[in-house]
Amino acid sequence: MELTWHGHSTWHVSVGDTDLLVDPFFDNPKTDLEPSEIDTPDYVLLTHGHADHIAHAGEFSDATLVATPELVSYCEAEFGFEDAVGGMGMNLGGTVECGDAFVTMVRADHTNGIMTEYDIDAGMPAGFVISDAHPHDAGADTTTVYDAGDTSLMSEMRDVIGDHLAPDAALLPIGDHFTMGTQQAAIAADWLDVDHVLPQHYDTFPPIETDPEAFAEYVDDAEVHVLEGDETFEL
Fold this sequence. Notes:
Elements: E1 2-5, E2 11-15, E3 18-22, E4 43-45, H1 51-54, E5 64-66, H2 69-79, E6 95-98, E7 101-107, E8 113-114, E9 120-121, E10 126-131, E11 144-147, H3 156-165, E12 169-173, H4 182-192, E13 196-200, H5 212-218, E14 223-224, E15 231-234
Parallel strand pairs: 3-4, 4-5, 11-12, 12-13, 13-14
Antiparallel strand pairs: 1-2, 1-15, 2-3, 6-7, 7-10, 8-9, 10-11
Protein name: UPF0173 metal-dependent hydrolase Natgr_2751
InterPro entries: Metallo-B-lactamas (IPR001279), RibonucZ/Hydroxyglut_hydro (IPR036866), UPF0173 (IPR022877), UPF0173_UPF0282_UlaG_hydrolase (IPR050114)
Organism: Natronobacterium gregoryi (strain ATCC 43098 / DSM 3393 / CCM 3738 / CIP 104747 / IAM 13177 / JCM 8860 / NBRC 102187 / NCIMB 2189 / SP2)
């Protein structure tokens, strides 16, 4: 599994022959790429409907969309997506097969209104657990990453995601203000019991500027990988 960070919360995840693009937003200082320079992925995964997570989703509308039904409906109308998992999206707790990947939607503690003149409700915000085998296949030798999306620290990381879905790595927001900060994200890494942590959602705007190396100092048992923009980590 390859994880490429394009800054903020935008990740290109490759599982076997399947490419997934999470929360496409390229107007950030960590990437030099334009959306047009990215090959259309097989799947686009959206954690929630805030502009800094869906701004460039429409550039990849030929992909299959993975999001809540409410967000799928919005993206169909706004961006022209014609294909979604299950024909209607998915919801919290569900697992869908996406090519060579299995994607489980999990809870995130955040908001999810799309602030237009109509103030659209985009359903619940989410995180994703992405694996190369079904997460409940006890006999499988799996490689699994958890993308927390935008969230605060929550006990579900310890009681459900870490305990039952058992990710090897976690993509955790550390910017504070809108999500967890460095210290709460370090607690999340401990609760998840992962081997690898990759920080995200920081240094994009002044309110979320932070030092990822300081975050690394708070993390005790996992290896922290601070990526440069457009850098790839192989899990």
